Amino acid sequence: MTDSDLNVTPTRPYMVRAIYQWIEDNYLTPYLMVDTTADNVQVPTEYIQDGRIVLNIASRATGNMTMDNDYINFSARFGGVSRDIWVPMQAVMGIYAKENSQGMFFDPSEYDNYTPPTDEKSSSSTKLEAQKAKPKRENTAGLKVLK
Questions:
Q1: pLDDT tens digit string along 117-128?
Q2: Mean pLDDT across the stretch 94-121?
Q3: Cβ-contact 32, 72 below 8 angstroms
Q4: SS3 for 33-46, per residue?
Q5: CATH class of 3-133
């Protein structure tokens, strides 16, 4: 039996998280190479070169980092302007340390025959829609001043 017969999940998200952790644990700078021609990539277009962008994803350079099985999402500053970055796992070409280039690059065809599960719990787009659909609560303090 092959992986496509079993419909196993791609290894890329797990490897990206593991290598990211190793790079951070060793006080190195994690760089993420992204294929900007892939669908649903949201990065600053003015920094794209040859259909690619390399992003510094160090914890000290990003905010609100989320790495799940479908997307990497964070905010970062580009030219002093904060931007929200969305990178689908299919668009991740590789992750490596700036200082010594150790890391991993991925097979571009890994997602070719992969069909993501259709249940709502695992869908990032459904999670995003649910977050947007939540009504905002009134911005009032939850504490009372006692005299």
A1: 775 544 455 555
A2: 87
A3: yes
A4: EEECCCCCCECCHH
A5: mainly beta
